[in-house]
Amino acid sequence: MDLKEVMAINMRRLRHDQNLTQEELAARAGLSMRYLGSIERARVSASVTVLGQLAKALGVEPCELIKQSKR
After folding, report:
1. Sign of CA dihedral 1, 24, 37, 49
2. Phi-psi region of 65 (alpha: psi -120 to 50; beta: other; left: phi over 0)
3. 58-61 long-range contacts, Cβ below 8 Å, gap at least 24?
4. Residue 14 above 80 pLDDT?
5. Predicted confidence band at 1 (pLDDT cuts at 50, 70, 90)?
């Protein structure tokens, strides 16, 4: 699994855990909903700046978004 997919899975999980819509998370992070959706579907790669914005909006450390779960 590539890093885009790992980030997409983690972001979706964290967003759902906090009962946030894509629209709410996009607003918190200062991103467009369309761009956020593309990140969450692993269609685009987020820059480190955007990674930081998303982490802050979700209240987690950036590494939580790119950490691969151990199966």
Report:
1. negative
2. alpha
3. 58/11, 58/14, 58/15, 58/18, 58/25, 59/18, 60/14
4. yes
5. confident
Residue recorded with tokens 């978004």: 65
DSSP state of 23: H
- Residue 66, class by beta-carbon neighbours within 10 Å (0-12 exposed, 13-18 middle, 19+ buried)? middle
Q: What type of residue sits at position 37?
A: G
Q: Decide: 42 and 7 in contact? Cβ < 8 Å.
A: yes
Tens of pLDDT, residue by residue over 33-67, are: 999 999 999 999 999 999 999 999 999 999 999 99
